[in-house]
Amino acid sequence: MKIYVVSGLGADFKVLERLEFPENCELIFIDWLIPEKNEPFYSYVERMAEKVDVSEPFSLLGYSFGGIMVQEINKLKPAQKVVIMGSIKSDKEKSKFIKTGEITKIPRIFPVGMFNDKAANVYSVVRKLFDPKNPKILQYFRVRDPYYLKWSVEKVSEWKFEEIPDVIQILGDKDIVFPIKYSKPDYVIKGGTHLFPATKSKEVSKILKEVFV
């Protein structure tokens, strides 16, 4: 079984490197693409989905913003299983903080320069969003193209989606990006912050081995 994997916003696959899967699974990572200027979201999803081979059975796995992305890809290329970690099934599960961005359109007026990785405020914002107690947060934050980061924040705040019942959701009970109180996850990682795939890899691996049998 091939599993196509999309990591989180601005994150590479280092955050997922400790996870273990059944031996019969072949992982194929889909790297984040840099959005074209004024590219519609559906067009970006189509480009991300190009790597998915539908000639044989496959599953999709997404972390954080990657969870949103694999659900969008699933609409174009339906998978046998869709698993999301540290992510949401629909726009109804957004936190009040993210909904505020959607209503006010504030992410749209952020200057691209705000997302420059040399700016001190990016470090503070990103660290708070992912895991305020983890001093190694920036080792996971590798995709730092300012336009991509601004675009991604906009798309998360604007995302509209009807829940797909079969999507399997794994959430940490200490996640402040996508708080568990707004969702009804299939699996809960006790003490898991938004970085639970890295910090609670044994617990997550056990679940993944049950899901991908």
Q: How does this structure look, described?
A:
GO terms for molecular function: hydrolase activity. This protein is α/β, with parallel strands linked by helices. It is built from eight helices and six strands; from the N terminus they run E-E-H-E-H-E-H-H-H-H-E-E-H-H. The protein has helices spanning 41-49, 65-76, 96-104, 106-109, 120-130, 146-158, 196-199, 201-211, and strands at 2-6, 26-29, 58-63, 82-85, 168-172, 187-189. A six-stranded parallel sheet has the order 2-1-3-4-5-6, with helices on both faces. Helix 1 crosses helix 2 and helix 3 crosses helix 6. The N and C termini lie close together (9 Å).
